Amino acid sequence: MPIKSENRNPPFNITRLSHVVLSSKDLDKTRYFYETGLGLEVTFQDKNNLYLRCLEEPWNHSLIFQKHEGPACCFKIGYRVFDEDDLNKAKDFFDQKEIPCKFSKRQFQGNTIELDDIVGVPLEFCATMDQKEPLMRKFDQHTGGRCAFLDHIQISTHDVQSAFDWYSDLGFRLTEYTAADGTDELWGVWLKRKYNTQDVVYSNGEGPMLHHIALHTPEIANVIHCADAMASLGLAENMDRPPGRHGIGNAFFIYFRDPDGHRVEIFTSHYAFLDSDLMPKRWDLSNTKRSQVWGFPAPKKWFYEGTSFVSKELKAPLLKAAPVTLEDFLEKLS
């Protein structure tokens, strides 16, 4: 199927990924991992909720953890729209499309609307959020991974093409993509609203399932320092994938799993994607450099494990192909 053209006149103006709402069985353990380990700032905590943000974020939160005794899950993916007028336009648009949508309230946010996207991911949109001075210039308080901001998320879905079409209609721009060799059969799409390569990635797999959240740090040295800091805090075993560089997006990365198993990427080196004549970069499915330019392939769990969305049934992917895993790579060497 041909790649759908960019919609330069979307029905309302989404500006960026805003926040993610996740479960936590033990808020104190979650706080230790993110605050002491990764260096995020806690902006609020009570017995049922934990709100955090990164060093450069003036808004109240980019991560919310809710006390939850059941299996680990993701409750919501949040996006920001430009202003209240765009929020009302969004409500009108979804109503016209007969997509169930409602206004709701969330602490520290302005008016918020809730709905599910085409592949079952629970979303919310807001235009305003409480603000206060961030830790950006308080350099003595920069610790752990020195994470600057929540950059993007990756979601596994059974139907990448449908997800791509839905978000394209909302004005998301395709920057890079993976397709079956010699075709435009989509296996992964990197979609953006802000200045760089992605706010959300949809990749082929059982879903809907949150693969990871990604926190940006300004320097490669910070990624390495983060690994050292986590090790010194007794969190080395939380490493999910060792440092490397993705071909797609050019990110230098490391991955961890938090106490509930939610996957977190700490990375740097994305590039700007702004000019109107820039074309999306295509990667063949067989080209493993899309996942790692150098180093070992990811372990099998990296491809198949993730965080389920609350009350959402997982669907088998429409497309099937076995990934190249670390286990396969090591077996060939033996």
Q: Would you kindly provide a written description of the structure presented here, covering whatever features stand out?
A:
Helices cover 18% and strands 33% of the residues. The chain is α/β, with parallel strands linked by helices and 334 residues long. The protein has 2 domains: 14-139, 2,3-Dihydroxybiphenyl 1,2-Dioxygenase, domain 1; 148-333, 2,3-Dihydroxybiphenyl 1,2-Dioxygenase, domain 1. It has an 18-stranded mixed beta sheet that branches. A hairpin with a 7-residue loop joins strand 6 (102-104) and strand 7. It is globular.
Spell out the key features of this protein.
2,3-Dihydroxybiphenyl 1,2-Dioxygenase, domain 1; 6 helices; 334 residues; alpha/beta; 18-stranded mixed beta sheet
- Beta-strand content estimate: 25-35%
Instruction: Count every helix, treating DSSP H or I runs of 4 or more residues as helices.
Output: 6
Classify the helix fraction into a percent range.
10-25%
**In angstroms, what separates the terminal alpha carbons?**
41 Å
Mean pLDDT: 96
- CATH architectural name of the largest domain: Roll
Indicate how many domains the architecture comprises. 2
In angstroms, what is the radius of gyration?
Answer: 19 Å
Low-confidence stretches: none
Strand element count: 18
Structural class, by secondary structure, is alpha/beta
CATH topology of the largest domain: 2,3-Dihydroxybiphenyl 1,2-Dioxygenase, domain 1
* CATH hierarchy class name of the largest domain: Alpha Beta
SSE series: EHEEEEHEEEEHEEEEHEEEEHEH
Name given to the CATH homologous superfamily of the largest domain: 2,3-Dihydroxybiphenyl 1,2-Dioxygenase, domain 1
The geometry reads as globular
Q: Major β-sheet, in short?
A: 18 strands, mixed
